[in-house]
């Protein structure tokens, strides 16, 4: 069995605020170690449960956070930026399942460092259904016929996953007190939990179905201010909905919607606030 791991950072054990996930801040280097070890726990469990191949995609920020020299020797790592499919780069129909590690809740929701791609996004929608990074990534997996077997992160990410994907296994490594305060397991306890939950998820993989995306989806992104919407709407085919900061794009399939989302948020980040 071939397993795909997408590893983000905000949902990793003990990480509470931007100083842990920003490469210019003092807590980042130690956070990279915890992130790498957390991925390793899942990879190790996967091989112990009989997986023949595990591909790990670094899915945070510039996507070069995981320390390859610390990783399980049989791991294959996708690292670096720019990736055509970002957090799900390399995911295709050859995989039997996917797991999302270090994930967080979507923008405007309760959760540790909750957001959707950039902090200028208030909400993202596919056909008026609100989704975040987790939902969008699960839709891409579903397009390829791949079920998301496990989501690991904070308690709010777990709740989001359970509403989105029936029978998904969740691993809660920390609880939300506020958006920048957590009550966390230690890395040692979290590692034990992740191994147990990854093994459990693989054992019950046949109970989880792919999250099949809608055909010809409409992507809508609500931005924090009008300037961001103006930038995002420069992408051909995109338009601002009247009297709003929502930019709309009609896609031919979920893959096109995903890439449209990537372009729109990159453009929106050019906005200044004065």
Rg calculated over all Cα atoms: 18 Å
User: Runs with pLDDT <50, length 5+?
Assistant: none
Distance between the termini: 52 Å
Order of helices and strands: EHHEEEEEHEHEEHEHEEH
Strand share of the residues? Answer: 15-25%
Q: What integer is the average pLDDT?
A: 98
Give the % helix. Answer: 25-40%
Count of folded domains: 2
User: Helical element count?
Assistant: 7
CATH superfamily annotation of the largest domain? Dipeptide transport protein
Biggest beta sheet summary: 7 strands, mixed
Q: How many beta-strand elements?
A: 12
Summarize the structure.
Helix content is 31%, strand content 24%. The protein has a seven-stranded mixed sheet with strand order 3-2-1-4-7-8-9, sandwiched between helices.
Question: Any descriptors?
Answer:
globular; 2 domains; Rossmann fold; 12 strands; Gyrase A, domain 2; 5-stranded antiparallel sheet; 7 helices; 274 residues; 7-stranded mixed sheet; alpha/beta
Describe this protein's structure:
The chain is globular and about 55 Å long. The protein contains 7 helices and 12 strands. It has 2 domains: 2-113 and 133-207, Dipeptide transport protein (Rossmann fold), CATH 3.40.50.10780; 218-269, Gyrase A, domain 2 (2-Layer Sandwich). The strands form 2 sheets. Strands 3-2-1-4-7-8-9 form a 7-stranded mixed beta sheet, sandwiched between helices. It has a 5-stranded antiparallel beta sheet with strand order 6-5-10-12-11. With 274 residues, it is of the alpha/beta class.
